[in-house]
Amino acid sequence: MAGYRHILAAVDLAPGEEDPVLGRAAALARQYGARLSLLHVVEYVPPLDLAYDPVVPVGVDIENQLMDRARAELDRRLGWLGVEGAQAFVEAGSPKRETVRFAQENGVDLIVVGTRGRHGLSLLLGSTANGVLHHAPCDVLAVRIHDEAADSAPGD
């Protein structure tokens, strides 16, 4: 196997400086000399009231604000990542669908995605990671994201 040429890190922008998905994707990009792309998908669903009317006034463009904030945060993370030529992308829509579409359209040969890996076989992967795994046109690496509250729960 010649290795990977284009690695996609599907980033959820959870708070905190340490991002295991980005760390693993960056390490693999360095190891293989691969191109690295970071992708965050904004999944905005406007809040509805009981009459199914949007609660947010029509003139407020929340989705664009969310996308601008995501771009700024991805750019910040690119700065400390230290992988030459890495690029960040922000899309709107369903995270699993947009991740798979991006991979197909951009010749990605490895997607690195996070999973919180709750207990039980049915909860092995989150819905986004599971959807990407089953529909991706390439290899998928699921990186375990430790949830402090769940990791310290009694009975573990």
SSE layout and pairing:
Layout: E1 6-10, H1 20-32, E2 35-42, H2 62-81, E3 87-92, H3 95-105, E4 110-115, H4 127-135, E5 139-144, H5 148-151
Parallel strand pairs: 1-2, 1-4, 2-3, 4-5
Helix pairs in contact: 3-4
What does this structure look like?
With 156 residues, the protein is α/β, with parallel strands linked by helices. It has one domain: 3-Layer(aba) Sandwich (Rossmann fold), CATH 3.40.50.620. 37% of the residues lie in helices and 20% in strands. It has a five-stranded parallel sheet, sandwiched between helices. α1 links the parallel β1 and β2. The longest helix has 20 residues.
Number of domains: 1
Total beta-strand segments: 5
**Biggest sheet overview:** 5 strands, parallel
> CATH superfamily membership, which one?
HUPs
Give the helices and strands as they follow along the chain: EHEHEHEHEH
CATH architecture: 3-Layer(aba) Sandwich
Q: What is the CATH C-level name?
A: Alpha Beta
Strand order of the largest sheet: 3-2-1-4-5
| Average predicted local confidence, pLDDT | 81
Helix content: 25-40%
| CATH fold field value | Rossmann fold
Low-confidence parts = 119-125, 149-156
Beta-strand content estimate: 15-25%
Distance between the termini: 38 Å
- Computed over alpha carbons, the radius of gyration is 17 Å
Give me the number of helical elements: 5
Structural class: alpha/beta
